[in-house]
């Protein structure tokens, strides 16, 4: 038994630096996910552009019409903002509460919630990307016109928000992969 205990102590000492490196990597990835999703939510929630155009001329008097493009006009963009804001808040809470969540049950719960957040961000980004494609190219069969030629700044900011969200989703996916590997190694008792 002494050899087994000695061997287990050596294995746990070998695993200690690796587990600290993994923990630091997970914190860095969580911070990157927080920045990506918060940026996406912030940029899209402030996305608005107004244009005034002449729609007709009566005599010499132009008749002007003001058009506004807002993220609130598209339910997919609203879902996008809510999904990214939720993931940002979740990642912030996990970072703040992490010192108090040290049991395996907490690790498993955080992993499961990380998976939910990945799904939420990915579906929000996919829905917004579908609407962005429609805004850029329109749909000839449904006779929906593209709007990005008229609201270029709105579309540019939307594209930046989409990019930040997809980066956040990718980071969440990488974080989930590392977490499941770590949980598997801890469950099997292997270094």
Automatic annotation (TrEMBL):
<dbReference type="InterPro" id="IPR006702">
    <property type="entry name" value="CASP_dom"/>
</dbReference>
<comment type="similarity">
    <text>Belongs to the Casparian strip membrane proteins (CASP) family.</text>
</comment>
<comment type="subunit">
    <text>Homodimer and heterodimers.</text>
</comment>
<keyword id="KW-1003">Cell membrane</keyword>
<keyword id="KW-1133">Transmembrane helix</keyword>
<feature type="transmembrane region" description="Helical">
    <location>
        <begin position="76"/>
        <end position="97"/>
    </location>
</feature>
<dbReference type="Pfam" id="PF04535">
    <property type="entry name" value="CASP_dom"/>
</dbReference>
<keyword id="KW-0472">Membrane</keyword>
<feature type="transmembrane region" description="Helical">
    <location>
        <begin position="21"/>
        <end position="44"/>
    </location>
</feature>
<dbReference type="InterPro" id="IPR044173">
    <property type="entry name" value="CASPL"/>
</dbReference>
<protein>
    <recommendedName>
        <fullName>CASP-like protein</fullName>
    </recommendedName>
</protein>
<feature type="transmembrane region" description="Helical">
    <location>
        <begin position="160"/>
        <end position="183"/>
    </location>
</feature>
<keyword id="KW-0812">Transmembrane</keyword>
<dbReference type="InterPro" id="IPR006459">
    <property type="entry name" value="CASP/CASPL"/>
</dbReference>
<dbReference type="GO" id="GO:0005886">
    <property type="term" value="C:plasma membrane"/>
</dbReference>
<feature type="transmembrane region" description="Helical">
    <location>
        <begin position="109"/>
        <end position="132"/>
    </location>
</feature>
<feature type="domain" description="Casparian strip membrane protein">
    <location>
        <begin position="22"/>
        <end position="170"/>
    </location>
</feature>
């Amino acid at each position: 038994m002494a050899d087994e205990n000695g061997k287990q102590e050596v294995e746990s000492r070998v695993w200690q630096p690796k587990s600290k490196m993994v923990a630091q990597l997970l914190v860095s990835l969580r911070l990157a996910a927080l920045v990506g999703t918060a940026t996406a939510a912030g940029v899209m929630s402030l996305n608005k552009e107004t244009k005034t155009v002449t729609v007709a001329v009566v005599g010499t008097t132009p008749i002007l019409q003001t058009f506004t493009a807002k993220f609130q006009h598209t339910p997919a963009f609203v879902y996008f903002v809510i999904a990214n804001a939720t993931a940002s808040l979740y990642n912030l809470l996990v970072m703040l509460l992490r010192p108090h969540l040290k049991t395996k049950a907490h690790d498993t719960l955080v992993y499961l919630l990380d998976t939910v957040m990945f799904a939420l961000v990915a579906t929000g980004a996919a829905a917004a990307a579908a609407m962005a494609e429609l805004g850029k190219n329109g749909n000839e069969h449904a006779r929906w016109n593209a709007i990005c030629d008229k609201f270029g700044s709105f579309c540019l900011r939307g594209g930046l928000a989409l990019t930040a969200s997809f980066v956040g989703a990718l980071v969440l996916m990488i974080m989930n992969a590392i977490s499941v590997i770590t949980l598997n190694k801890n469950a099997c008792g292997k270094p």
